[in-house]
Amino acid sequence: MTAHQDRLNFALDVSQQAAELILSYYRSQTLGVESKADDSPVTVADRGAEQLIREALAKHYPDDGILGEEFDDVDGASGYRWILDPIDGTKPFIYGVPLFGTLVGIEFEGRMVAGVCRFPAQDEVVYAEEGGGAWWQIKDGEPVRAQVSEETELSRARLMFTEPTHDVRVGRSEVLPGFLQQVRIARGWGDCYGHMMVATGRAELAIDPEMSAWDIAALIPIVREAGGHCTDWQGEENIFGGDGFSTNAALHKQVLDVLRAAPPITK
Which domains does the chain have, with CATH numbers? Predict the structure, then answer.
């Protein structure tokens, strides 16, 4: 067994349990939508799924730390920290769009070493552990290797983005249009789904002008193990960088050069 395999297996299992809870609310009239302090939505499914994961962690890994979107941080003593986003893409979830995911990232001594991105409504999961490769499983099928594409030309690249209106609100409205003029195709398949499109070779680039730690943490080891890069806009695997993008290996430097020159986030 590899160094972090037991925790990855646990993450796969507990994210499936969380997915089942989430699906019990999906496309129902019992979402209980509220607005948080930053005006972003949250539902009873978000809170219930994160609470389920936290309770399981408290039982099985009581010495591990926890950083999650919906509840307070938990300090740890083992060197491990779990970084949780129960529903990444709460807006699609609320609107009945299946492109939302449950993210479980595993950090060890400050480095993201494993991640799970599960899509409850599609019954798919993409996951990785450092040194063990990235894997993509659809329903009950056998997992297959997740691998970024080998495309080398930005003019032939497929770009994923989340919400252009948000780019405007954070003062980065010029970045996306610049890329739209260069790529072959662009689609608003955003949040974690867009980044997993990169990890599975179905897109070359996913850009988010603002990301929280729980938005990006699980994605970093998955895209890395798939042969690509998931970093902040300065090129660092920093979950607190405030923004993020995923690319295949061939296009990373070209895209990074543009993003490094982008204006800082404004509120």
Answer: 5-145 (3.30.540.10), 154-260 (3.40.190.80)
What is the sign of the dihedral through the CA atoms of 85, 225, 74 and 215? Answer: negative
Give yes or no for a contact between 220 and 214, defined as CB atoms under 8 angstroms apart. Answer: no
CA atoms within 13 A on the CB side of 98: 8
**Alpha-carbon Rg for the chain in angstroms:** 17
For the sheet with 101-108, list strands across it: 65-68, 80-88, 101-108, 111-119, 124-129, 133-138, 144-145
- Among residues 189, 163, 15, 22, which one has the least CA distance to residue 93? 22
Question: In DSSP terms, which residues pair with 212 in a beta bridge?
Answer: none
Tokens of 50: 């994160």
pLDDT the model gives residue 28:
80
The pLDDT of residue 43 is 82
For the record, the structure tokens of 53 come out as: 């994961």
Would you state the structure tokens that stand for residue 264, as one six-digit string? 């800082």
The answer on pLDDT for 68 being more than 60 is yes
Over residues 79-115, the pLDDT tens digits come to 999 999 999 999 999 999 999 999 999 999 999 999 9
Main-chain phi, psi angles of 185, to 5 degrees: -150, 145
